Amino acid sequence: MKIGIDLDGVVIDSEATFRVYEEIFDIEDLKTNNLINREEPKFQGRYNWTQEQQQEFINKYFLTVSKESNLMSGFLGVYKRLKEQGHEFVVITARGGFIDEMKDDAQRLLDENNIKFDKYYWKCSEKLEACQNEKVDIMIDDDWKIIKKLSENKIKTLYFRDTNLLKMQENEYLTEVNNWGDVYRYITNMKNK
């Protein structure tokens, strides 16, 4: 099976770390409360920040978040099992799009844990096209907007949903998972059908 996989919020716990530094930035740096929608997957929609404030956040905290982030709990064990079973992994990530060094930092973390994916799409803003070109059997992502677009285009998706993100209606192309045990169960069941 060919598995498309996002990095941030799926393989790397950076999304939770981002939310911590978003709050610090909003409270300490901006000294306001600009939170407008906790269900938004990205800070641009979660806060009512100006373009200048968004860029200030990127410049001040993105590399800090990247360096403080770790692998998601349970990822390594499930990844190794799925690789041993012959599954192929294609990374499809926007990482590196804002700050190039974030790609290098992710690669460092993967190398330190001896993780080698089969193919990489870095700085990928159009995940639908990448999934179609790769003919992935399933895509795992944590951004509900991406999941919605993929599932509406008949690509099977696993929505790696963090607790405060939008709850979506499951269907034949969209299944919610909350941890790597859920992912393992889904892929194992899919393989056995």
Strand and helix layout:
Elements (H helix, E strand, L loop, with lengths): L1 E4 L8 H16 L13 H4 L4 H18 L6 H10 L3 E5 L8 H12 L6 E3 L5 H8 L3 E4 L2 H9 L4 E4 L13 E4 L2 H12 L2
Parallel strand pairs: 1-2, 1-4, 2-3, 4-5, 5-6
> Strand count, sense and closure of the main sheet?
6 strands, parallel
Which regions are unreliable across 5 or more consecutive residues at pLDDT < 50?
none
Shape: globular
How many whole angstroms does the radius of gyration measure? Answer: 17 Å
Number of domains: 2
> If you consult CATH, what is the topology of the largest domain?
Rossmann fold
CATH superfamily of the largest domain: HAD superfamily/HAD-like
Based on secondary structure, the structural category is alpha/beta
What is the strand arrangement across the widest sheet? Answer: 3-2-1-4-5-6
Q: What's the average pLDDT?
A: 94
* N-to-C span: 13 Å
Succession of helices and strands: EHHHHEHEHEHEEH
Q: Estimate what percentage of residues fall within beta strands.
A: 5-15%
Tally of helical segments: 8
- What is the β-strand count? 6
Name given to the CATH architecture of the largest domain: 3-Layer(aba) Sandwich
Question: Tell me, what is the CATH class of the largest domain?
Answer: Alpha Beta
Helix content: 40-55%
Structure description:
A six-stranded parallel beta sheet has the order 3-2-1-4-5-6. The protein has helices spanning 14-29, 43-46, 51-68, 75-84, 101-112, 127-134, 144-152, 180-191; strands spanning 2-5, 88-92, 119-121, 138-141, 157-160, 174-177. It has 193 residues and is α/β, with parallel strands linked by helices. The chain has two domains: 2-13 and 70-191, Rossmann fold; 14-68, no CATH class. The longest helix is centred in the first third of the chain and has 18 residues, at 51-68. The protein is globular. The mean pLDDT is 94. The protein starts with a strand and ends with a helix.
